[in-house]
Amino acid sequence: MVMRELISILCLVILVLLIGCNDIVYSPKGSYFKEIPEPQVDIVLTIKNGGELLKAWGNVKLLYEIDTKSHELLAIDLYVDGDKILSTKNPDSILFNTRSVNDGIHQMRLEMRTHTNTGSLADKMNKEYMIYYVEWKMEIHNSVPSVTPQIQKVEVYDGRVRVTWSPYNYANFQSISIYDVTQTQGNRRRATFSSYDPGFWIDSSFVGGQRGYYLILTAGNETVERNSIKEISVDAPVIVSMDYVNTTGIKLQWKKPQLYNNFYNYQIQYATDPPFGVIGQDDKYLDFHTIVTQNIIEDTICIIQDIGFGNAVRYRVVFGESDGRQLISPSTTFYLGERCPEMRSVLFSQTSNSYYLIHTDGWSYHLDANTFQELDCVTNMSFTVAPDLSYAYCIGGRGIYQLDPVTFDTLSYINVYQDINSSVTRIKELVAGGAGRVFFSGWNYSYFPIAYYGYDFSEQKTIGEIKHVGPVERFVKASQNGSYGIFESGIFWKFADSSAQQIGKLDPDYCCFIEDGEKIVRTSGNYLQLLQSNDLSVISEFYTGKSLLYPTYDSITACVGGQSGNHYYIYNLQQQQLIKTVQLCLYSLDQFYFSNSVLFSKWGYFEKIQIP
Questions:
Q1: Cβ atoms of 436 and 482 closer than 8 Å
Q2: For the chain, where do the domains classified as CATH 2.120.10.30 start and end?
Q3: Across the strands, what pairs with 235?
Q4: Contact criterion met (CB below 8 Å) for 176 and 216
Q5: Would you say domain 348-503 falls under CATH 2.130.10.10?
Q6: Which of 146, 214, 381, 516 is the most exposed place for a label (fewest CB within 10 A)?
Q7: Alpha carbon distance 162, 437 (integer Å)
Q8: pLDDT over 80 (residue 403)
Q9: Domain span(s) for CATH 2.130.10.10 in the chain
Q10: pLDDT one-digit tens code per residue, 335-376
């Protein structure tokens, strides 16, 4: 009897219950001297994010639910391709680092071991247990592709621009972003797909022109750089010409759009620039009004609209579709004006066939003389161009740069703080003269003006200094030879031999420099006078019958223009006769500039003038 008891203790009995899918197998093993009751199967193991195939990369938390009823949990084990790699007693999740195995599809198995509750010695010694398991397949992908999914084609499809690429279907997909590239707006992210890769995208905002597209993929916590850009060129609904019809109408002609599907109608809209607008202001800031709606396809229309000079009217064509989508052409300004901040001078360059518009707010614009569109060399920070168009200048730090007026390459630099006056820490009111000379005001740390200076870049020396006295003012005009300057208050100075000499009073609103800067045109009462610059003596004068403001000399036509009331008068200075009268509608009290047969208002309106 004693021997039989010892044999019963030494014989370890292991019960293994395998549960897979819906099959349950109970397989007792070992030798038994008495009947062991079969355990009741009432345990549940369910993996919550299971399925036939899981895709994973990086660290993955496998979630599961267990219900052991009265059975004590011994362990939960994770097997990959038959090898146990993790073991835990956590009742709801296990953290699996997928980088611990190779990329590919693996057979996964999650096992749960519990007591059998038979009451046997083997059960109590954890040598007898039941096993429950769940199996599935998992695709693991941690490596990052060497090439971004390629854009296959960009095409006009069903009236839209459709971008198609080869989809990326690996497990480590995080996001794929599509970017477009345009000449005016650069690179822009247009859409991001963070949970799936559709393989295509519709650009519904593109109305025409040229645009490129590329993709950027983020996978495995790394970003794959963009691939080559695929471009498309599409005819846009754009106004191609505008002409006067008699004196009351405007004829508009445009290209029909390529990007519309269910054509419904088109509208002609117009808008006027708001006050104090800027050149090239975005259409979204303007208030457009519809003046014509047509339900037939045309490419030309005549509009009867009374618009006077100075109204800066913009027109655009809007094509509508039956689904409510609109294709809007960029607005086109009929040459009654673009606007910009208040100007203080206008210069025309025959070399580059362009205009320099110098403004009081530190911004300056460079315009093509044929199209009046902004060129690439728009600059800021007290930029100015010499009257003889020899050099351009701008402030940089505590110094002044001398630039090429066409390419804007740096030619020379003067550090005012080091080379002229160490008290000057700020530079303001930059005005260029000719012959490599420039005028400016120097200020200290406390924003207090110290002095006004003239500097000669050619000889690299100061040509004059005017100590600051009285209220703060600025230079407004400088001569073409760089020897004379006029203050806002009307004080006229001569700069030479490192000194500045006050010559007299000369109101800048009634005078302008001409030719080499040794002569000045001044309006005095009803007379137009020609003065000698060095002493303001009168060389000649003739009677105009009009009291003129803001005279402007155009060296191309050798004509002087000036304002009186709501008219601008242009005179041939040599022949001393009136050759053109321009009636001003709006903004007639603003200052106007006449240059190369184009009349500019100080707010940027312009009009081409035919000189007989």
A1: yes
A2: 507-612
A3: none
A4: yes
A5: yes
A6: 146
A7: 57
A8: yes
A9: 348-503
A10: 443 334 456 677 777 777 787 777 654 556 677 777 767 665
Give the lowest-confidence range in 225-229, 311-315, 496-500, 593-597.
311-315
Q: For the structural domain made of 151-234, what CATH number should be given?
A: 2.60.40.10
Q: What are 336's two structure tokens?
A: 């009654």
Give buried/exposed letters for 1-19 (b at 16+ CB in 10 A, else e): eeeeeeeeeeeebebebeb
Contact in structure between 271 and 314 (CB atoms under 8 Å):
yes
What are the backbone dihedrals phi and psi of residue 92, each rounded to the nearest 5 degrees, phi first? -135, -15
- 274 — pLDDT class (breaks 50, 70, 90): very low
CB atoms under 10 Å from CB of 512, counted, come to 24
- CA gap 37, 305 in Å, rounded: 103
CATH superfamily, with its number, for domain 507-612: TolB, C-terminal domain (2.120.10.30)
CATH topology of domain 239-333: Immunoglobulin-like (2.60.40)
Paired residues of 427 in beta bridges: 442
Domain with CATH 2.60.40.10 in the chain: 2-140, 151-234, 239-333
Residues 347 and 434: their CA atoms lie apart, in Å, by: 12
Question: Which token pair is 173?
Answer: 């997909």
**In whole angstroms, what is the distance from residue 431 CA to residue 485 CA?**
9
- Strand locations in 533-611, DSSP E? 538-543, 549-554, 559-564, 567-572, 577-583, 592-595, 598-601, 606-608
Answer whether 291's CB lies under 8 Å from 302's CB. no
Q: In CATH, what is the architecture of 2-140?
A: Sandwich (2.60)
The tens digit of pLDDT for each residue in 134-144 reads 888 888 888 87
Provide the pLDDT for residue 113: 84
Give the CA diameter of the chain: 149
End-to-end Cα spacing for the chain: 140
* CA-wise closest residue to 571 among 561, 563, 557: 561
How do strand 354-359 and strand 343-349 relate by DSSP bridges? antiparallel
Q: Is the pTM of this model over 0.85?
A: no
